[in-house]
Write a structure and sequence with these properties.
The protein is an alpha+beta fold. The protein has five helices and 15 strands. It folds into two domains: 127 residues, Sandwich (Immunoglobulin-like); 132 residues, no CATH class. 36% of the residues are buried.
């Protein structure tokens, strides 16, 4: 055996002695990516201070970076387009590195969920893109908040304070089971807490937030008729006027967003008639003592 061969063999032996030998076809184990698996929320009234708590639960570790702050609008991470969300303030929550889907690309957490809490109306996903998961929390009012990171299981908790009083009003949603059977009533009320004195506005905000998970399980749905929000709500001389934003289309149905808006506003003593206009301001009967809808909501 030559001296050169012996030196080469010795070097190979040293290298193998200090190396980690992996099974054929395998790679080094990577830490699991935090995967969002649940979102829940509840109101905490005692002890003071009162707050609404939103919990984002993950499988695996916590995301390395959590960023929470108020934004003027909710923007889709991939599209760059605005995402509809109900409320008077938007608290954005961003997780990185994280995902909200499994290896097959199927969602592991809800994309949109409504809550009947004093401040939290809706939680809406705006992104699950390139290791970043983003949600918006639609609120009745902008308030202070705090963020907690908890273990076993991995959770990011956002507490939004509720230093205000609320009153209960009714919001009307379509009863899909009754519509399918053709037997009314075709809309059914649910109770929502709203901040006084803007109770009519609060009731409409809750309408656009949609039914809760439990209410949806009972067949309640929000028929938006392609509207994404509303504006120009006024009440004067017994007439409530409101303008739809976004789209407006009945889809040929006799059941539209008007069936929900009219009773939601008509419950208030100051309202005798409701006039709904399209985004351009058009409605069938802009004056007079009658309810009115735009042509786009006609069957």
């Amino acid at each position: 055996m030559s001296s050169t061969f012996r030196r080469t063999l010795a070097c190979i032996t040293v290298l193998l002695w200090g190396a980690s030998i992996l099974p054929a076809g395998s790679a080094r184990a990577q830490p699991p990516i935090p995967t969002l698996v649940a979102i829940r929320a509840a109101h905490h009234a005692a002890p003071a201070p009162r707050f609404d708590r939103v919990v984002f639960q993950f499988s695996g570790p916590l995301p390395a970076d959590v960023n929470v702050g108020y934004v003027p609008e909710l923007i889709g991470d991939g599209s760059g387009l605005p995402i509809p969300i109900a409320g008077r303030a938007i608290l954005q929550v961003r997780f990185s590195l994280a995902q909200a889907h499994n290896n097959a690309g199927q969602p592991t957490a809800p994309g949109r969920r409504a809550f009947a809490l004093p401040n939290v109306m809706q939680v809406v996903r705006s992104g699950d893109f390139e290791g970043v998961v983003t949600y918006g929390i639609g609120l009745a009012r902008r308030e202070q908040f705090k963020v907690l990171r908890l273990q076993n299981p991995s959770r990011v908790v956002v507490d939004i304070f509720t230093p205000f009083e609320t009153v209960w009003v009714r919001t009307y949603f379509v009863d899909s089971d009754n519509v399918a059977s053709g037997v009314g009533p075709f809309v059914r009320p649910v109770w929502r807490p709203v901040i006084s004195p803007s109770v009519a506005r609060g009731a409409l905000d809750r309408l656009f937030a949609g039914p809760t998970q439990a209410e949806a399980a009972q067949g309640l749905v929000f028929i938006a008729s392609e509207a994404t929000s509303y504006s120009n709500l006024t009440i004067a001389s017994g007439i409530a006027r409101v303008r739809l934003r976004g789209g407006c289309n009945s889809g040929g149905s006799t059941i539209t967003i008007a069936n929900e808006i009219v009773p939601t506003l008509d419950q208030f003593a100051s309202v005798s008639y409701v006039k709904i206009a399209s985004a351009s301001g058009q409605t069938a009967s802009p004056t007079g003592n009658s309810n009115s809808i735009p042509a786009c909501l006609e069957p």
